[in-house]
């Protein structure tokens, strides 16, 4: 039971993290999301690549073992080693410095950076293929919920603009005018706005 609760908390934590679009050194494109927890020296990383979600979870001693493999010459506290990892990943994910390699049911994402005094820091996420339902749980369902929420907010904003137009029209009927001509706006036309937006989307 405790293991089930622990796994649920893990996926609750990773689920609220945003997906990050990354271009790799050799041109591959992928989506990444990570959850780093310094207090337990643990992280969970997910990657959407080649229509599959890949995942690695590392906790405590496993993290220290990987440190000895990839960075045997760096001697410092475990907390600092973990800070180096998070900082290095964040600096590499947007700079085309990630390298990806897939072999059967294993995906490796490698990166390196330089610490103070030019000391190199290396790391590789060694990720296994996740279950197919993760695509629904981590990608499709959140995306549909986001689209639904954006649609709701757009409807509220449209109604607000219409009320503002009525308010401005009332001011004008009472003789009010804008102090500068370039500040004057035309009434909001929801149909024209939606048509223009649809055309923009169809061109993507």
Explained architecture:
Residues 131-175 form the XLF-like coiled-coil region domain. InterPro entries: NHEJ_factor, XLF-like_CC, XLF-like_N, XRCC4-like_N_sf. It is found in: Nucleus. There is one protein chain. The chain has 204 residues and is of the alpha+beta class. The protein has helices spanning 2-15, 61-70, 78-92, 133-173, 190-202; strands spanning 20-23, 29-37, 42-49, 52-59, 99-103, 106-114, 120-129. The chain folds into two domains: 14-130, Dna Repair Protein Xrcc4, Chain: A, domain 1, CATH 2.170.210.10; 132-177. It is built from five helices and seven strands; from the N terminus they run H-E-E-E-E-H-H-E-E-E-H-H. A seven-stranded antiparallel beta sheet has the order 1-2-3-4-7-6-5.
Structural key phrases:
single chain, alpha+beta, Dna Repair Protein Xrcc4, Chain: A, domain 1, elongated, disordered N terminus, nucleus, DNA repair, DNA end binding
């Amino acid at each position: 039971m405790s293991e089930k609760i622990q796994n649920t908390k893990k996926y609750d934590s990773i689920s609220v993290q945003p997906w990050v679009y990354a271009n790799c050194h050799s041109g591959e494109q992928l989506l990444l999301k990570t959850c780093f927890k310094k207090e337990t020296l643990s992280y969970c990383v997910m990657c959407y690549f080649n229509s599959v979600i890949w995942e690695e979870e590392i906790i405590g001693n496993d993290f220290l073992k990987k440190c000895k493999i990839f960075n045997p010459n760096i001697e410092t506290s475990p907390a600092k080693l973990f800070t180096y990892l998070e900082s290095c990943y964040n600096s590499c994910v947007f700079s085309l410095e990630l390298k990806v390699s897939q072999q059967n049911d294993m995906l490796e994402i490698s990166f390196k950076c330089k610490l103070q005094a030019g000391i190199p820091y290396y790391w590789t996420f060694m990720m296994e293929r996740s279950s197919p339902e993760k695509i629904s749980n981590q990608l499709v369902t959140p995306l549909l919920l986001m689209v639904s929420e954006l649609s709701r907010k757009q409807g509220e904003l449209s109604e607000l603009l219409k009320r503002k137009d009525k308010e401005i029209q009332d001011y004008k009927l009472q003789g009010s005018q804008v102090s500068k001509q370039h500040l004057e706006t035309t009434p909001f036309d929801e149909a024209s706005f939606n048509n223009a937006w649809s055309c923009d989307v169809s061109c993507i």
